[in-house]
Every structure is written in C-alpha cells, then in structure tokens.
Recover the amino acids of this structure.
C-alpha cells in the first residue's frame, strides 16, 4: 500500500529553469493538495483539487501550475524557477471533508 | 479567513514527563474538524489525533490526548510519558465541516524531549 508517492525527493534548479513535481496516490482519494513548507514555518497551500478536471488556487499559487487529468495524479509545475521557491513541497490527499490528510514524504527543492 | 494559532514556537520536556502544546483557532462555524500532526526530523507528516467539533468527548490515542474547549476555541495536545521519539514539530490544523476543502495549519511548535 504505497499511499501518496512524491518524486523526486531532492532537486536543485537554476534560476529560470522549469520542472514538474510528481504526485500520485493509490487510495482513490478525491481531494489532493500541494503545500510548501519554508524553513521553520508551517504549511502554505499552493493549489488543491477536489476531483479529476477540477483545480483551484490556494494561498500562494503564483509561479506554479497544476493539472488533474486523473484521480490518481496531481503534478505541480514550476515555470521560471526563482530563489523564493526554495522550499520543501508536500503533496497530500484525503477522501472526504472530515478525514485527515495523508501526506507524501516531500520534495526538497533548491533554486540557485 | 480562518486562523490557527500555536503560541509556543518551542518547548522542551524531560523524558517520561507530561507536556501540553496549545492551539487556538478562530471560526464562526459550528461544524468542523481539528487535527494534530507530528513532523519528526525525517520531515514526514504523521497524523497524531483528530477531533470532531460535534463530539464533546476528548479524543485519545495511547499517550496522546486532547483538551477540546469549543467555547474557548482551544484544542491543546497532551503528551504523557514523553519519549525521545516524540521529538518533532507539532502542527495543529482546522477544516470546515462543510463547503471548504482547505485545511488551515498553525505555524507549529518544536518539541524537544530531553533524556
């Protein structure tokens, strides 16, 4: 039972490069989320999705894009990476509004 | 917007002692859910305990229990018989029971268990 799988675990990008953070869940959860966690800080919501084909902005969406073509996958796209996007990124999912989040193990991204 | 406040950025406790982490939240809703998550140095986010606002009984999971005071909008976490493995960041989170899909997290409390 894999749960929520994120790849890669670590990545270093140069300023202006682009990349996609992958997230997949095998629990048939409708809701999926992308958070970022800056050093010593809590979690800030970037984007979320309530089902395939439906996405919405969170608290800090600028510089990111998402898509949700299937229930299982929720990739996060960074265009024109900036140093301010250096962070740890967490993908999470849950089945319903009263259920807890299941988190992936995170991706540590450094932009230099 | 809903807010979740964890007023203790850092705490420490002796091994085998009891510690309480505080969390307050601001909402006008009556139906919602509260969670405590643990983030050890491995950075994995682990669910510790959950509480439904409509339940008056405080949730308990082994050495972890909560003191849920709905009128005061307070949701503290008590860790009994603290163990070295409890050293971690602890995050409190709130989510509406209807309409909103977004969880709101506090900024976290860094707990150190001292041998």
């Amino acid at each position: 039972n894999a749960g929520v799988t994120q790849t890669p675990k670590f990545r270093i990008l140069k300023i202006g490069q682009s990349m996609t953070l992958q997230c997949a869940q095998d629990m048939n959860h409708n809701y999926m989320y992308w958070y970022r966690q800056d050093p010593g800080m809590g979690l800030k919501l970037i984007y979320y999705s309530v089902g395939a084909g439906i996405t919405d902005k969170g608290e800090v969406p600028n510089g990111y894009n998402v898509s949700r073509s299937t229930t299982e996958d929720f990739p996060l796209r960074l265009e024109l990476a900036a140093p301010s996007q250096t962070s740890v990124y967490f993908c999470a999912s849950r089945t319903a509004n009263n259920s807890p989040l299941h988190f992936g193990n995170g991706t540590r991204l450094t932009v230099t | 917007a809903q807010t979740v406040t964890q007023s203790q950025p850092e705490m420490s406790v002796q091994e085998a002692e009891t510690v309480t982490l505080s969390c307050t939240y601001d909402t006008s809703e009556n139906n919602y859910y509260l969670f405590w998550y643990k983030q050890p140095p491995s950075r994995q986010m682990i669910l510790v305990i959950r509480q439904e606002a409509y339940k008056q009984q405080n949730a308990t999971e082994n050495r972890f229990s909560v003191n849920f005071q709905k009128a005061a909008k307070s949701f503290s976490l008590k860790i009994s018989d603290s163990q070295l493995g409890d050293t971690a960041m602890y995050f409190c989170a709130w989510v509406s029971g209807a309409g909103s899909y977004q969880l709101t997290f506090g900024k976290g409390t860094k707990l150190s268990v001292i041998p």
User: Anything to note?
Assistant: Chain A has a mean pLDDT of 94. Chain A touches chain B at residues 31, 33, 41-43, 45, 48, 50, 58, 88, 90, 92, 97-98, 100-101, 103, 105-106 (CB under 8 Å). The longest strand of chain A covers residues 43-51.
